[in-house]
Amino acid sequence: MISTGVPRSLQTFNIMISVYGLGGKLDKAAEMFAAAQELGLLIDEKIYTNMLNFYGKAGRHQEASSLFDRMKELGIMPGKISCNSMINAYATARLHDEAEIVFQEMQSHGQVPDSTTYLALIRSYSESRCYSKAEKAIQMMLTSGITPSCPHFSHLIFAFLKADQIDEAQRICSQMQEIGVAVDLACCRAMMRAYLEHGRVDEGISLFETTRGSLKPDSFILSAAFHLYEHSGSEPEAGDVLEAIGLHGASFLRSLKVGSKLEPT
């Protein structure tokens, strides 16, 4: 770019950083960032945030952390988007303590956490199995007047399911619905899989019946519902689900089995 006479503006470098970052060529993006510095251009928060975001998504939290510290050393106060990117980077690396420090620094500098901030913080706690802290973060949102969305709860639900703590996942799911947040497709799939694999037939059927009208037809959910109905002896309902599978052009997953995780290995 430099040798071909392309204007060496900060905007041009930022565009190139975005192009390389989005294309998965993070090292090239880093080269563009370094080149802008070498030319003496005044790097602004926007470019720093861009790099933080790409480093975080790539799981390179150490580079992101170094860049974040450099911003502050140069007198560039990280804004909300920069802090959110840094918290996300720590969440990906399962470094919840570091994520919490950034969250606290935001508040100490008068920055008000938004929905995205809380989502990143909850993710960091959930990934690190700090379940109670994730729940407290959700409560902090509500206290601050910010209504959580399903993904805010889903990170915690998925973490509980991963640890086979189905009752806890169910509790969080119920809390979510109690405040009027609908279960999304990903969350419903995860809960249905847990109910199916652990033989929790009635709970799986109940979830299906309460969500079928609000979620788009899904091959896994419909197939799981069929197997649950069939297992419970509810042949008419199983037949209705099978008909719905054909009507919506979904795939029937015949290999699914109720209680598959309860069987001895």
Automatic annotation (TrEMBL):
Database matches in InterPro entries: PPR/CCM1_RNA-binding, PPR_rpt, TPR-like_helical_dom_sf
Which controlled-vocabulary keywords does the entry list?
Repeat, Transit peptide
Cite the repeat ranges for PPR: 9-43, 44-78, 79-113, 114-148
Q: Which Pfam families match?
A: PPR, PPR_2
In terms of Gene3D superfamilies, this protein maps to: Tetratricopeptide repeat domain
Q: What NCBIfam families does the record point to?
A: PPR (TIGR00756)
Mind telling me what this protein is named? Pentacotripeptide-repeat region of PRORP domain-containing protein
